[in-house]
Design goal:
Blueprint lengths: L12 H30 L5 H37 L4
Helix pairs in contact: 1-2
Length: 88
């Protein structure tokens, strides 16, 4: 995944779309991690403490992934509106 930036003012619509695709892939990976953790815990392959610690980390990553998705969506909307209204 590309390094995350907070300033998208110089990004093209194509770049924003690429970053959205990367973020969606990351979200998919995080869902896989969550499923794996749950399955490991159900199979008693990991302790409850390990499960809670790892789940907390995955949940924090998922929150960041969602935050990024929201930022990217807003930037795409901003840029698209600028193109449609002729401001860009």
């Amino acid at each position: 995944m590309s390094p995350w930036i907070e300033d998208f003012s110089t990004c093209s619509l194509e770049e924003l779309r690429r970053r959205q695709a990367e973020n969606q892939e990351w979200s998919k990976e995080l869902r896989g991690k969550t499923n794996s953790l749950v399955n490991s815990r159900l199979a008693r392959s990991i302790s409850l403490v390990d499960y809670r610690n790892n789940r907390k980390l995955v949940d924090e990553e998922a929150a960041e992934c969602q935050r990024r998705a929201t930022v990217l969506e807003a930037q795409v909307a901003r840029l698209t509106c600028g193109i449609v209204s002729g401001r860009r």
